[in-house]
Design a protein that fits this description.
With 285 residues, this protein is of the alpha+beta class. Helices cover 42% and strands 14% of the residues. A hairpin with a 6-residue loop joins strand 3 and strand 4.
């Protein structure tokens, strides 16, 4: 009869030799198990007892438990995509979140289980996409008025430059013709060569199909420079037409440039004036 000390350090037995061989076969004992052959005898290792050597050779070693697989790592891109999507009210972060979400989803699907966060990536894509669509009209509402103001300002500057060049062309003509201003009836034709291009006859804020958007003060027709007040209106904005001339009755009823009218005076200067100032301008030489 035999006694053994189990892995729990408890003593079991007595058991027969056949029972001990059965335990060897079942893997309940191993070569390092301590065995007492009879009461009071010395404890030995099972591997040191010859009669069990054959059983130990035939024993099937226990299959070691598979190490627990490490949990997959959650994709940082997927998390970032969702966070940026939630914060994407300004549009830019939503766009970045959408891109990161797509990249994260592709990487997760290719990781063969090493990366987790598929749901986070999909949520990030959806939230970022929604916020991006939501922010487009919001951003447009902010930028379109600013763009409109910038365009209007640029058109005003262009119109002012046109009138400066037209006024200069008139004065060049006068210098070449005994200081006399051109005839009002054909003033556009007369100064065209001095103007250099017919583009300066067109205001960028009006119908591009019209050849000219300015009129000449008919009261200055053929007058000698220096014989009248230099602050007299010379060229002013009108509805359009080539060689248009006349007085304030031809002036615009509604300004093209916000609330401002643009006029060129006889001394070559150009002014932007509001409606009340326009009514006070000098028209008589």
């Amino acid at each position: 009869m035999y006694r053994i000390i189990g892995a729990d350090q408890k003593e079991y037995g007595p058991i027969t030799a056949d029972q001990l061989r059965q335990w060897i076969t079942e893997g309940r004992v191993n070569p390092q198990t301590k065995v007492q052959v009879k009461d009071g005898s010395e404890w030995k290792l099972l591997a040191d007892i010859p009669e069990f050597a054959e059983a130990l050779k035939r024993r099937v070693p226990p299959v070691p438990a598979a190490a627990a697989a490490a949990p997959p790592k959650t994709s940082g891109m997927a998390i970032a995509s969702l966070v940026l999507g939630v914060l994407g009210f300004c549009g830019i972060t939503a766009l970045i979140g959408l891109v990161l979400g797509i990249i994260a989803l592709v990487k997760i699907n290719r990781s063969q289980g090493r990366l987790a966060g598929n749901g986070l990536a999909i949520a990030g894509i959806c939230v970022s996409g929604f916020m991006l669509l939501f922010s487009i009209p919001f951003m447009a509402g902010l930028t379109l008025p600013a763009l409109a103001r910038a365009k209007s300002k640029a058109q005003t500057i262009n119109c002012v430059n046109n009138l400066k060049q037209l006024a200069l062309a008139v004065r060049i003509y006068a210098t070449d013709h005994n200081d006399q201003f051109p005839s009002a009836t054909n003033w556009c034709d007369t100064i065209l060569s001095n103007a250099g291009t017919d583009k300066i006859f067109k205001c960028p804020a009006d119908d591009p199909g019209k050849r000219c958007h300015y009129a000449f003060n008919a009261r200055l027709s053929g007058l000698e420079e220096g014989k009248f007040s230099p602050d007299t209106v010379m060229i002013f904005e009108c509805d359009g037409g080539w060689n248009v001339n006349g007085g304030p009755e031809l002036a615009l009823t509604k300004p093209r440039h916000g609330r401002m009218f643009v006029v060129a005076l006889a001394d070559g200067s150009v002014q932007k004036v509001n409606e009340s100032q326009f009514k006070q301008l000098r028209w008589e030489p």
